[in-house]
């Protein structure tokens, strides 16, 4: 089973012990060799705090890409993303052998006169090294993002056929488009709503405003002042006055890619305007296209430790001490602007808050 052909080394690092995600690994692991009984010899290894299948494969097999086979050989592991201290793993240490059909023994032929002739060698095809596979991550629909300019020029939902406050899937709505905007029957438009401005927590600079995706509608009939449309999909309740946008739908499948250079920034806001707790929640950062950030980059989330109330600050040098950073989790960049980006939390060990630090890495994820 060659599962590793579909897995990036980058994602293997996310396959770790549940708590904490990446702690220090024991330098003297509990590995015990078990004698073979009609099978290849294997080691019985007890998982230590901080272990990952990737790291265990690299240590004992000297091949980190062996981790899918390690998982397959240990059916007790239900989810490779979570292994726990104390679990027992079987690690087969022998070489991988391709078993073929046993060759039939042939009696030696009687000696014959050897006739020498010029033999044309068979051309050998060059070895082609496969490119690194593309790994995609599916993200939820209807995520918020940062808008940089007013979008009302794209049209608005003017009214509903009935006196109700909200509309949803399958409901008919009347839309009003600017005179210079040409739409046709069958056109799909995104429904969005503007929220509060995004203000940098340190510089206090306005970096845009939050835009929530509400749904998608389809134009079904054209009129003189109002066009008729049907809401084909909604992520949130749709109200009168919602904007229409033809060109800002976020992709739901995003290919992972390493950052071109290491970049550091911070969380400047969150979609819920409060601390975030887990996967698929949206945050905004002060890194963007002008810094080299791209959709698909992975961000490491950290937070500097702070001095406790019991520490004694004697002078300005003590006050200026920079504490080590605490690892919080990972986030995936799903949309970029020149100065900002939208990211979705993939994994978090604790709450993510405004002011937390982010780092885009060029290689394997490290704590």
In a nutshell, what does this entry contain?
The protein folds into three domains: 3-92, Membrane-bound Lytic Murein Transglycosylase D, Chain A (Roll), CATH 3.10.350.10; 152-245, Thrombin, subunit H (Beta Barrel); 253-360, Beta Barrel (Thrombin, subunit H), CATH 2.40.10. The protein is built from four helices and 20 strands.
Give a structural overview:
By secondary structure, the protein is mostly beta strands. The chain contains 4 helices and 20 strands. The protein has helices at 9-12, 53-60, 67-72, 316-319, and strands spanning 16-17, 30-34, 42-46, 82-83, 88-92, 136-138, 145-147, 156-159, 172-176, 188-199, 206-221, 227-234, 243-245, 253-255, 263-270, 282-285, 298-304, 325-336, 341-348, 357-360. The chain is globular.
SSE topology:
Elements: H1 9-12, E1 16-17, E2 30-34, E3 42-46, H2 53-60, H3 67-72, E4 82-83, E5 88-92, E6 136-138, E7 145-147, E8 156-159, E9 172-176, E10 188-199, E11 206-221, E12 227-234, E13 243-245, E14 253-255, E15 263-270, E16 282-285, E17 298-304, H4 316-319, E18 325-336, E19 341-348, E20 357-360
Parallel strand pairs: 1-4
Antiparallel strand pairs: 2-3, 3-5, 6-14, 7-11, 8-9, 9-12, 10-11, 10-13, 11-12, 15-16, 15-20, 16-19, 17-18, 17-20, 18-19
Order of helices and strands: HEEEHHEEEEEEEEEEEEEEHEEE
| Net shape | globular
**Number of extended strands:** 20
Can you tell me the residue ranges where pLDDT is under 50 for at least 5 consecutive residues? 1-29, 33-40, 94-106, 124-133
- Strand content is 25-35%
Q: Give the domain tally.
A: 3
Q: Which CATH architecture of the largest domain would you pick?
A: Beta Barrel
Distance between the termini: 31 Å
Can you summarize the main beta sheet? 7 strands, antiparallel
CATH class of the largest domain: Mainly Beta
| Residue share in helix | under 10%
Structural class of the secondary elements? Answer: mainly beta
CATH topology of the largest domain: Thrombin, subunit H
- Rounded mean pLDDT score: 75
Q: What is the overall number of helices? A: 4
